[in-house]
Amino acid sequence: MGGLEFALVQMLSCIAALHFENFVSAAACPDGTFGVNCKEQCGKCSKNISCDKTGGMCSGGCEGRFRPPLCKMKYPVFDEAPRFISHTLTSITISVDNISFSGDIYPTNYHLQYVKVESANQGGSWITFGTFAYSAKVKQHEIPCLEVRSSYGVRVVLIDETGTGYNGTDIPCAVYNTSCIHPDKVNTQLLQHTIRISWQLSAHHCNEGLYVYDVKENGSNTTDPQLPFGLKPFTDYRWTLRYGNMLILVGNITTPESAPERPEHLQVIKRTPHAIWLTWQRPRVTNGLLRKFIICVKLLSSELRRQDRSRKLLEEEIKVTLSMNYSYEVKDLEPSSEYNVSVRGMTVEPGEPAVLNSVKTSLIVPDIGSQLKLVDDYIASTILQVIIPPADSFLAKNSSYFVVVTSDKEEVAASLTKLKMMEFILKTANVKNDGRSWIAAEIEPQDEEQLFKVGDNRKMISGTSGDVYWNRPLEPGLLYDLTLVALNWQDGEYESSFAKLKHPDQALSEKEGGIGAEWSALLLLLIIPVAVYFVIRKPKQTEPFELIYEDAVPERQVPEPDRTPDYHAADYPYEVVV
Questions:
Q1: Rounded Cα–Cα distance for residues 73 and 104 (Å)
Q2: What is the pLDDT averaged over residues 246-251?
Q3: What is the DSSP letter of 119?
Q4: Which residue in 421, 515, 529, 538 has its CB near the most CB atoms, within 10 A?
Q5: Are strands 371-374 and 493-501 parallel, antiparallel or unpaired?
Q6: Residue among 485, 499, 486, 271 nearest 366 (CA)
Q7: Is the Cβ–Cβ distance between 296 and 315 less than 8 Å?
């Protein structure tokens, strides 16, 4: 063998030895490594299967987004799904913005894919609409030929320089709908405090279950819409109809009127015998256009001697103005009576009333005239006869008449002036309490005129107080002034008036006699001759006879009046002066 051949054989032996050494070392690498001396690490092989010991390839594919065959680099994938732009009945328009992506490889192209939602989970169901070059510019794409009223998933698959890309189910996608026919008008119906919205369905109408409508009070500060029920009366609302998140229609509506709330601060500011003055403020919430106020006055009870049963309920109406405060005079009421008063506002229906449960009219001033009258044809030396006028028709049950006598000379016993009623009545009658006046009687008012004899020496218990008054005899020849005091009394309140004689009158004296004196003189002319006869004739000793002038003229006998008054000791303590 020549030198050349020897050298060739030796070189081939070295090559064979080298290949043999490499083969032995690669086959001996542990799982997860490959290559010379096992220095290379396997990529992310699917199911954690070890890669090829020599070349490092994953025969079963890669895990997740890693690119085969080595499964060491990730495919590029968008971080977000395409954005919705618009839609029609059969198309959806989306935009592929400069969306950030994750991965180890820069994309060169992308596939725009879509799938109907009902078949999204079926294998190989994604349809590639087109392949487009990737750039940083925003691009819009319209996906046509879709079904009406249908939902579609839309995604973008990025492609690298090898012409492959990741097609896993975890690529971000969005679901968009093709358009349907939305209503262009709706019917609004108000039921009490609820708004109901309805519309007609078209051939390609949208899913009714996805519509939502709500309302919001105009001028409200809140940003949250409210449900279309429990609304305020007579209030402006803005309603909206939405399809999912899409605004479809907007409108305004005013809820109907209802009864107003009660008026505020109802009170009585003035009372008279026949009227009351009311004042109040309009309701805080009117719930509509306030048209009028209704005032209702109902008679509860009356303290009058004579009651008018014909009118127990009075109802008045007043128009509403722009004022906040209102006042009204309720007339034609009865004095000394108790009423229930209510005021309510009126829109399309009456509202809740404000009520005063008890309002009393005041007492009336008794009307007995200004002058007392005497009976002209009645003449007596110790009595004056006066005409008591009929009772006022509006006197209370506890009303009384008092007859006050005032002498020009006579002094009244001090014990009489200690009566409390005496002081009160004299002050009411504008008569000085100087010891020359007294109350002769308390008289209950009657519907007709009464005749009263002043000085008939009777002790009277009359009227409503139950007090005892002595109608003491008058002294002949003295001047007397008579005052009639009318006292209208109820519940601690009173009104009074009085009437006097036009001029003080004089009781007949002994010398004037009147008709009684004339008869006495005539009888005296008849008796004197008889008396003379008996004086001339000598009387027998057994027939003593004494002529007394008072016996001969019985009409002139005036008994000594009983000047001792009789009072209720429990009512007025007094001292008896003899």
A1: 6
A2: 89
A3: G
A4: 421
A5: parallel
A6: 486
A7: yes
Residue 404 pairs in a beta bridge with 439, 483
Indicate left, alpha or beta for 451 from its phi (over 0: left) and psi (-120 to 50: alpha). beta
In tens, the pLDDT along 130-154 reads 999 988 777 899 999 998 888 899 9
Tokens 């009028």 locate to: 292
pTM above 0.90, yes or no: no
Tell me how far apart the alpha carbons of residues 303 and 494 are, in angstroms, rounded to a whole number.
13
pLDDT at 381: 74
DSSP codes joined into one string, 400-425: EEEEEEEESSPPPPGGGGG-HHHHHH
Strand partners, 304: 396
Beta strands in 335-424 (DSSP E): 337-346, 354-360, 371-374, 384-388, 400-407
Task: Report DSSP state, residue 93.
Answer: E
Query: Residue for token digits 């618009």?
Result: 86
Distance between alpha carbon 52 and the CA centroid of its chain, in Å?
Answer: 89
Question: Residues 522-534, buried b or exposed e (16+ Cβ, 10 A)?
Answer: eeeeeeeeeeeee
What gap in Å lies between CA 239 and CA 248, rounded to an integer?
11
Kindly provide the residue ranges of all beta strands, DSSP E only, lying in 223-336, ordered along the sequence.
Answer: 236-243, 246-254, 264-271, 276-281, 292-302, 313-319, 325-330
Q: Please report, for residues 3, 14, 18, 247, the alpha-carbon distance to residue 6 in angstroms, rounded to integers and kept in the order given.
A: 5, 13, 19, 93
Question: What's the pLDDT tens digit per position in 532-560?
Answer: 555 555 444 444 434 333 333 333 334 44
Rg (CA), the chain: 62
| pLDDT for 296 beyond 60 | yes
What is the Cα–Cα distance from 561 to 546, expressed in whole angstroms?
Answer: 27
- 182 compared with 267, residue with greater pLDDT: 267
Contact between 265 and 259 (Cβ < 8 Å):
no
Residue with tokens 């939902």: 151
Separation CA 104–CA 77 (nearest Å): 10
* φ/ψ of residue 414, rounded to 5: -60, -30
CB environment 310-330: b (16+ within 10 A), e (fewer): eeeebeeeeebeeeeebeeeb
Query: What pLDDT sits at residue 281?
Result: 95
Task: Count the helix, strand and coil residues of the chain and give each as a percent rounded to the nearest 5.
Answer: 15, 35, 50
427: which DSSP letter? H
CA distance 102 to 336: 98
Q: Which of 193, 187, 344, 343 is nearest to 257 (CA)?
A: 193
User: CA triplet 380, 381, 387: central angle to 5 degrees?
Assistant: 45
Q: Count CB-CB contacts under 10 A for residue 148.
A: 15
pLDDT of residue 419: 58
The H-or-E segment that residue 173 falls in is strand 173-177
* Dist CA 31 CA 238 (whole Å): 71
Q: Which whole-number Å values give the CA distances from 479 to 117, 219, 414, 440, in the listed order?
A: 126, 87, 21, 16
